[in-house]
Amino acid sequence: MMPPKQLLTIVIIIFCTLSFIKLLLLTSSSSSSAGSTSRSSPAWDAVGGGNGTARSALAVKELALLRSVVAARAPCRLLVFGLSPQLLALAKLNSGAGAGAATAFVTDSADDADAARHALLSGRGAGAGSGSADAVAIHRARYRDAAAEAWPLLRRARGSPACRRPTGTVRKSGCPLALTSLPREVLDARWDVVVVDGPSGAAPDEPGRMGTIYTAAALARAVAGGEAVDVAVHDVDRTVERWYAWEYLCQDNLVAAKGRLWHFRIAAGAGPTDAFCSIGPVQIL
């Protein structure tokens, strides 16, 4: 007969082995579940919801203002920097107004781009059965500058003639703030409404919105004639967004504000020919 001490040792070894196997199975199951969640976020299962799940999702009143801006111009040419279920729903609002609508999104997130394309194909993003998904384009972008670089970039831009009001296509701009690597379909087009809600810019080391705000302003100013261009900037409670909105979209163009969302209207041909704003640059201490 086996001694009690040896028997106890064997029991402990068996128990530990079974516990370890169970732990491995639980870990594997959790990883699979997490992977599935990241590929199909619940936020994208309810496109157009009023609350959103992103760190800086649009509040209800902000989304209402943004929708009213798009609805007033729809069907129109709509450019959106950023991509989320709330923003994707703007494509449905735009295309639902009739023929001639075109919506383009620019995002640095592969996951958001894939989720949005899936939503469009399934008919949840731009209206099922209307063919409107064909009028929606999603472009990937890589943003060079972190939010922490906002002030050094602005200081250099103020001293650079290339960063003054553009006189030609933005694609040929020599200003380091201009997102000249974006596709021609974005930079050479005329846009009626431009929305800036990306990239994240939520932390100093994350890509900032300096380039998207400057490019939005440059695209609006590049319009030689016709109707005004509406530009909306989200998260203006943050320093970078507020600085750059004042610098390039101008206080005298601000027509509405709700929460953290500012709505500017840039009149075609208005303002000085060699600067974005009629008044001097904002003093930043």
UniProtKB/TrEMBL annotation:
<keyword id="KW-0812">Transmembrane</keyword>
<dbReference type="Pfam" id="PF21729">
    <property type="entry name" value="IRX15_IRX15L_GXM"/>
</dbReference>
<protein>
    <recommendedName>
        <fullName>Polysaccharide biosynthesis domain-containing protein</fullName>
    </recommendedName>
</protein>
<dbReference type="GO" id="GO:0045492">
    <property type="term" value="P:xylan biosynthetic process"/>
</dbReference>
<dbReference type="GO" id="GO:0000139">
    <property type="term" value="C:Golgi membrane"/>
</dbReference>
<dbReference type="InterPro" id="IPR006514">
    <property type="entry name" value="IRX15/GXM/AGM"/>
</dbReference>
<keyword id="KW-0472">Membrane</keyword>
<keyword id="KW-1133">Transmembrane helix</keyword>
